[in-house]
Amino acid sequence: MSTETAEPQAYDPAARRDTPLARKLRQEIRRAGSISLPQYMSACLADPEHGYYRTRPAIGAHGDFITAPEISQVFGELIGLWAVVTWQQMGSPSHFRLIELGPGRGTLMADALRAARLAPAFLEAAQVCLVDINATMRDAQASAIAAATSGNPPRLSWHDTVTSIYWDDPGALDMPAILLGNEFLDTCPIFQYTRRGEGWISRRVGLDDAGRLQFAEPGSASKPALPRPDTTLDVLFPTARDGDVVTKPQFEFLDSDVMPWRRLAALFIDYGHPEPAPGDTLQAVRAHAFEHPLTSPGEADLTAHVDFSAIRRRIEGAESALAIDGVTTQAEFLGSLGIMERASRLMAANPAKAAEIEMGVARLMSVPGMGSRFKAIGLRSPDLPPLPGF
After folding, report:
1. Residue range 62-188+250-279+300-380, CATH number
2. With pLDDT > 90 as the criterion, what percentage of the chain qualifies?
3. Phi/psi at 324 (nearest 5 deg)?
4. Dmax of the chain from CA atoms?
């Protein structure tokens, strides 16, 4: 999940590192012939022993990428104020869950809760649930939140999955929930397909003659894929030409993490496009540099640009009782929340950091740049009014 979303810099497409996960995957591929791309992505990011998000402090100057909350505190503060207004739209319930998916170092939640001190009843009502498979980050998250709330944080709990929140407490689904996901959607496993004549080939990961990981094409795996017709892909990508790679996300987490809540408001911000578009956007980032997605399994962040229309199709296809707000650009979303006014007040209160604050906000709002490449989408129970910012 990299905030630098320009075209990847040149890298060696043949480079392969013999990581522990690469060795594990090669054994599985020799047994099975090839593995699906979702299997590969899931292993790279969440393998219990070697998954990237299990073991590595990815975010920050000493990690592999920088996210919006690390660029400017104004981003997290606006999300906090967004959550307060959303809670008020819910009727200011006396108890609710404030859930963040992939909280990283806890920066976004810390900034959000600091801004939310303007509404003490909000903090009193909130039970903060941090959903993160990287248990090594929990101390950092707790420290960041404690510092932002003057050592008096709201109730905190950690979970590997959203489902564990309501598995552990079956009554949780009856409690209102506000769910935040910043740069989370881009990590969801995807399917990719290659156009071949009148059909499509599912992109898989296999081994070349030297035993190195490669994207498997017909004849390159012990169980080769064959082109097959797919009217769904034909409709989604009518302009795809022979050899084009297309991405079809599934967003299965919506079924378990979003749809079951009786009363919900959810906000997702990520980089991507509002409609399906041909092109291979699968990318890997390690030490703030791009590399081939097969180079360093388990030791590089692996993401793909988000097709936001796939969220709409998933929600509508499940006949879910959820309304959808957006999609809108990050610049439009943050602008409607008052980012310029917030930044001006912060600069006036901290003149020594005014240039730094201005630069961070400019980066978040730049068009072309983060302001246009990143999009925001809201999901809500239909009895709620449109969410702030949309």
Report:
1. 3.40.50.12710
2. 81
3. -120, 130
4. 65
* Cβ partners under 8 Å of residue 232, min gap 6: none
Q: What residues are paired with 99 via a beta bridge?
A: 129, 179
> How far apart (Å, rounded) are the C-alpha atoms in residues 107 and 117?
16
Model-level pTM? 0.93
Alpha carbon distances (Å) from 89 to 83, 190, 385 = 10, 34, 7
- 183: helix, strand or coil: coil
What Cα–Cα distance (Å) separates residue 244 from each residue in 92, 202, 315? 50, 12, 27
What confidence tier does 244 reach under pLDDT thresholds 50, 70, 90? very high
Domain residue ranges in the chain: 62-188+250-279+300-380
Q: Which two tokens stand for residue 329?
A: 């650009």
For the stretch 306-328, pLDDT in tens is 999 999 999 988 777 899 999 99
Integer-rounded Cα Rg, in Å, for the chain is: 21
Report the alpha-carbon angle 89-93-94, nearest 5: 150
Give the number of other CB atoms < 10 A from CB of residue 139: 10
CB proximity list for 323: less than 8 A, separation 6 or greater = 379, 380, 381, 382, 384
Does the CA dihedral 301-307-310-312 come out positive or negative?
A: positive
Neighbours of 252 (CB within 10 A): 12
83-92, 220-229, 357-366: least confident range: 220-229
Question: E strands of 51-148, at which residues?
Answer: 96-101, 126-131
What's the per-residue H, E or C state across 249-267? Answer: ECCCHHHHHHCCCCCEEEE
